[in-house]
Amino acid sequence: MLILRLQYVAKKPYLLTKVLTMKLKFFIVLAVFCISTLPKLAHTNKTFINTEASPSDEDENEFDESLIKVRLRKLNSAIDIRYTPEVKKFLQTYVKSYRTTSEHLLGRATMYFPFFDQALNKYNLPVELKMISVIESSLNPNAISPAGAIGLWQFMPGTARDMGLNFNSVVDERRDPNKSAEAAARFLARLYDQFGDWGLALAAYNCGPNRVLNAIKSAGGEKDFWTIRKYLPRETQNYVPKFIAINYIFNYYTKHKLKPTFPELDLQITEISSLYSKVDLRALSNRLNVPYEVMKALNPMYRQGYIPASENAMNIILPLRSMNNFRNTQPALDKSSHPLNEMILTSNPSDDSEYVELVYTVSRGERLEDIAVNARVSNSLIKFWNGMSNNSIKEGQTLKLYAFKNQQVGLLTKQTVVQPLSEQFVQVKSMMEDGNFINTSLSNVSDDEEVVEYIMHRLGEKESIADVADQYNDVTIENIIDYNKITKDNLPMPGDLIRVKIKTKISK
């Protein structure tokens, strides 16, 4: 056939010229294409903190399905993960089309995932279920659906009341990051008990248990999401694929060079306390030197700018740096019978604490959980700050941490050195003199030298100060009271972190 065409062209010279010109253009375009793609074919040697011993170690700009499938298989998931066309579509959306949105979601998660992890762990549920909130609300506590669902977990009024959430013109606990997460955990536990499959539980969370039951009936009694999927509403059919895609993004975003857009540290490093009296949020923000915008962002459940008086404890979420000052103020607040704003506006506001960025070196046998407790932050935060997909760490690995300058936390343990990233923020010497950080690097001690260390002990539910003292050598009740400035009006509560000063003999 080719010979015949050439013979035909040879008989017509003008056609020969045209063909040769077309061929030349084709090869030029081909050459340009090959040259332009060379940089894409050559992988760089960038290494991330949480690397994998497989071809998936290398990050890529391209959408490499073979690598994605490998990573999905590595996810330790309670849900049956499959790579379907729908999963691919959502992944492409998050990785390519809406990269900026994905980066904002990743950053915003630092405000809420610590609460969600705590709630899910409390009910022994898979922590990956927190991805539901990303689907439901894009991590916006003020999100409202056309159907009337509200909050981070998008509770309808009936389900919210059933789960014990209160809402009115003053307070809406569907917007409370802590209480809504607990309610969601209880609801998910109920759905799993009903269906015995997490895929079906997720489907029921989206469309309701009755529609899932009807789909199971239509499928001849099959109780598997992928089997009954075609009998579910269109939105619910895509719910689990979207969940899988989001779970992938939050675990492997560094592989696609997504960079979280983190909020300010006051919104990330937080703690919960409680109040019983009426509290004006603006007045409290002045007292604690916390910007009012930050106070509102942390406490979206209070719709009128104040915490109402209640016989039941009302949550207040504050930057960790302000908690000591708040606890000193709290007894007077709860005893006050007059409006809080009149009292606290006459008080001298506390000095702002400065955040510092630190590098932490992991010791042998140390767990991420231990580091998180000592740093008074969650595992989630440390993983986000360091681009980690799991809790795995190893000796000698360095971790980026954030703390405030006056934080009374022993971040340093034996064989561990904390170094400031910038001398303009903090000096190691001054930290040591202030007693905030104790340097116990082995390079600085002689044989069998006694070194003073500070550790943080989380108070158990039925644990007293005396019980804590009994657990450590040469630690007395008086020591603990002194180191933590405990008074009869400021007694530690279960879950609080207590600073314990111990002596360790180090042998080199």
Quick rundown:
This protein has 508 residues and is mainly alpha-helical. It contains 23 helices and 9 strands. Helices cover 46% and strands 10% of the residues.
Explain the overall architecture.
With 508 residues, this protein is mainly α. The protein folds into 3 domains: 65-256, Lysozyme (Orthogonal Bundle); 265-344, no CATH class; 355-506, no CATH class. 46% of the residues lie in helices and 10% in strands. It contains 23 helices and 9 strands. Strands 6-5-7 form a 3-stranded antiparallel beta sheet. The protein is globular and about 65 Å long. It starts with a helix and ends with a strand.
Helices, strands, pairings?
Layout: H1 2-10, H2 13-41, H3 65-74, H4 85-97, H5 99-122, H6 131-137, H7 157-162, H8 177-195, H9 198-207, H10 209-218, H11 225-228, H12 234-237, H13 239-252, H14 265-268, E1 270-275, E2 279-280, H15 281-288, H16 292-298, E3 306-307, E4 314-319, H17 323-335, H18 340-344, E5 355-361, H19 368-375, H20 379-386, E6 398-404, E7 418-420, H21 428-434, E8 449-458, H22 465-470, H23 477-484, E9 497-506
Antiparallel strand pairs: 1-4, 2-3, 5-6, 5-7, 8-9
